[in-house]
Write a structure and sequence with these properties.
single chain, 275 residues, rod-shaped
């Protein structure tokens, strides 16, 4: 049964990794296409502005010929010499046509390069992702560098893990050793909070189990072990609730004395010590 659960978790993890890879590939393709469209628009706009600039220069160059045409045009009409007619228009038309043809050639080249870019991007997406080519690291690999001194191995890491559950648990153990309640109702409140505290601890293992399957490059067996700890802590929560119920039952009269105080009560149950 456990082997089947491990295989199922492994299949689920593999499918989730594939979905994530496809989603990331789609996002990368969209970014590449958006960048290609923006670059195409920028280059076409620059080409158009260059064409318009050349036409303005052509108009400026044609102004003297328009002035000369005011003299030569009537002569050309009278003598029927076309080369004397409209000299300014002919110069401008030739220069503007050259600018337009140059723009068309540039636009054809720009669009061809844009098409090639899209085809290359599509070819890159069709290739098998790197994650599918790289083998999973061996299960016996070490995440730290060990140094041996006198038969003992010392672990050395470049950075702290950022989360040390044992330190938090040690602090809680030290607090329990130094715990000196003023009254038994303080102990009552402490035991009352045990189920909630154990639930937080259990949720810690549940979160780590989920991260080991979804975010960390760990084998499915690790998540399964953490899930087993979580289930065991669920049983501990039930036992903690039973402990609180037992406390309320066996000390029912004492608790009633605190909730309904009377004169000459015992010192340990004096309400002044349980505020």
């Amino acid at each position: 049964m456990r082997q089947a659960m491990r295989r199922m978790r492994s299949h689920v993890r593999t499918a989730k990794d594939e979905r994530t890879a496809r989603r990331l590939a789609g996002m990368r393709e969209l970014r590449k296409r958006a960048w290609a469209r923006w670059r195409l628009w920028r280059r076409l706009t620059a080409s158009a502005l260059r064409c318009y600039g050349r036409k303005i220069v052509a108009a400026a160059i044609s102004v003297p010929f328009f002035t000369i045409g005011m003299i030569t045009h009537p002569i050309g009409v009278r003598l029927r010499w076309r080369w004397l007619m409209w000299p300014g228009q002919r110069v401008y038309a030739r220069l503007a046509a050259a600018a337009r043809w140059a723009r068309e050639d540039r636009d054809i080249t720009i669009r061809a390069e844009h098409k090639t870019t899209l085809e290359n991007a599509a070819a890159d997406e069709d290739e098998e992702p790197i994650a599918a080519k790289v083998r999973r690291a061996p299960r016996s690999h070490h995440a730290y560098a060990g140094t041996s001194t006198g038969g003992s191995t010392t672990m050395s890491t470049t950075a702290g893990p950022g989360f040390l559950f044992n330190e938090t648990a040690s602090e809680m153990e030290a607090a329990a050793k130094n715990y000196d309640p003023d009254g038994m109702m303080h102990v009552h409140d402490t035991i009352k909070g045990f189920p909630e505290a154990l639930a937080s601890v259990a949720n810690t293992f549940a979160i780590l189990a989920q991260k080991s399957d979804e975010e960390f490059p760990l084998e499915p067996e690790v998540g399964t072990s953490l899930d087993a700890i979580y289930e065991a802590l669920q049983l501990a929560i039930d036992e903690a609730e039973d402990a609180f119920t037992t406390f309320r039952t066996v000390h029912e009269q004492d608790i009633r004395r605190h909730e309904e105080p009377r004169n000459n009560a015992e010192e340990g149950w004096d309400t002044t010590n349980n505020q």
